[in-house]
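User: Run a structure prediction on this.
Assistant: Running it now.
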Amino acid sequence: MTGRHLRVHHRDYYDHEVHDGDIHAHGERSEDLDCEPDEYDREDGLSAVDLAVARLEDLAVTEPSGWPFPGPHCWWSGTVTLDYYTGEMRETSAHPCGFSDDECRDIWARLISA
């Protein structure tokens, strides 16, 4: 994918697949979430940063990889979710791609102040 987007990684595992702090996931997948505003977004005054923040909040992936702002390689993680029916746990992280340093800093500032 070109343009500004979030590369989202999901790791699925069960409690018994964690050994000495290492996770031996049985399932992993990645997806790209587009953050380039279309004509409707622009009419509503939304920027790529607005779309990235909304997508990160929707995913509940709002914990930064560093403090203070670690630079353009900042990535985001969230809480591990548990499927109570299967016992499967999912860890999700998101990595901004194509964003400028200023845009990454703006995403970071908006999420840590929320």
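The CA atoms of residues 69 and 105 lie 7 Å apart.
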